[in-house]
């Protein structure tokens, strides 16, 4: 699938999730940024989506902001969402990963707001809460919303199954290099060279039996995109 086709599918997935969250009673408001940490991950497809929308001046500024954060501790995943699903189905152990929100805020925040909010990756879009995080210290999400978010993460990874996943800082900086973007367009991006991990195709959905009926309408919409 060509990059422009994948980007179109990604934006359709974002729109479906946006419609889903619009119907929820959430406490999230502008400048509510407790969840905006350095630990956000994304796929190379989502990074390409962001970079495609920025002009050269905006890209240079983004690179400078992220370059200053490369020496800071941040979550760097060892395993993708679809690999988690595969391992769980086989009863295999998952690697231990460190992810501490106290490592610090997202390096892009300005006045407690994201300057690229409309372009944010899915990991930011699904950081939602029914209660004020600043008061309770964490996001408050019911189990069905967690299931839905996991499925969307799986689908986005599947759309980018020939790409990579990693920390926001790492993926954006790696893909912002013209030679790496060219390699990505040609489905030959070297993930390990950028401290990234290889994506996997979707084989099984992480939907517990108790959520299958409720999730069915969303799953049908996502299936149309996956099989388009």
Task: Please render the helix and strand layout as text.
Elements: H1 3-22, E1 41-43, H2 44-53, H3 56-67, H4 81-90, H5 122-125, H6 133-136, H7 143-159, E2 164-167, H8 168-175, H9 178-185, E3 197-198, H10 212-226
Antiparallel strand pairs: 1-2, 2-3
Helix pairs in contact: 1-2, 1-7, 1-10, 2-8, 7-10
Give an overview of the whole structure:
The chain is mostly helical. The protein has one domain (3-226). It is built from ten helices and three strands; from the N terminus they run H-E-H-H-H-H-H-H-E-H-H-E-H. It is globular and about 45 Å long.
Q: Count of helices?
A: 10
Find the count of extended strands (DSSP E, 2+ residues).
3
Cα-based radius of gyration, to the nearest Å: 17 Å
Strand order within the widest beta sheet: 1-2-3
- β-strand percent reads under 5%
Describe the biggest sheet? 3 strands, antiparallel
Q: Return the domain count.
A: 1
Global mean pLDDT = 93
Helix content: 40-55%
> Can you write the helix and strand succession as a string?
HEHHHHHHEHHEH
Shape summary? globular
| Unreliable segments of 5+ consecutive residues | none
Class of secondary structure makeup? mainly alpha
Distance between the first and last residues' Cα: 10 Å
Structure characteristics:
4% strand, globular, 228 residues, 10 helices, 47% helix, mainly alpha, 3 strands, single chain
